[in-house]
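Course assignment 3, question 2. Fill in each field.
Student: A.L.
Task: Predict the tertiary structure for the chain below.
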Amino acid sequence: LHDALPICFAQGLKQIIQTKRTKVSVASVLFLVLLAFLTFTPSSYTVSAEGKVQPQTRRNIYAPSEGEIYKVAVEHNERVVEKQILLELRSPSLELEDQALKGDYLANAKKLLSIPAERIQLQQGGDPYGIKSQQLSAREEELQQLIASQKMQMELVEAQKDALNIVSPIQGQVLTWNPVDLLENRPVQRGQRLLSVADT
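Answer field:
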């Protein structure tokens, strides 16, 4: 009996150690399985946030030059087509330049029209050396060149005035809130944003 006790104790200790090893092995296997699962299984990640739907095609309208908005031809949320007039601007400096050019043009045109009558008078009065006739021809040519130059300047000013009629670059909807109260009869600077239009 005295010899059997150590043997029983040794066997029990061995069994306990084996049981612990089995538990550790099972735990290790479970840990490895869990680790493989977490590594190779994709997980979903959801983020909640507030947002606003924006149109893909949107255009901002800018002032082509300095001036004053004479008329706003559209309202908020109004549907517009491409090249429809949205705003009409006025430029006092362009108006003055246009009036001055037209006045000079008319004055020079009258001078040019009077040259044939002056030439007839020279022929009737006689001009033995033709000096006055040459001077008249030179003045006629100068007036013709000046009138041609003024016509080009007037066309350029007219094109600038036409550009003051701002049109929609796309078909869409006016997004700017209450554009009449916001813009009408207001001075604007070149490059200032005036309206936004989007294809909704």
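Instructor remarks: The longest strand covers residues 193-199. The mean pLDDT is 84.
Grade: pending
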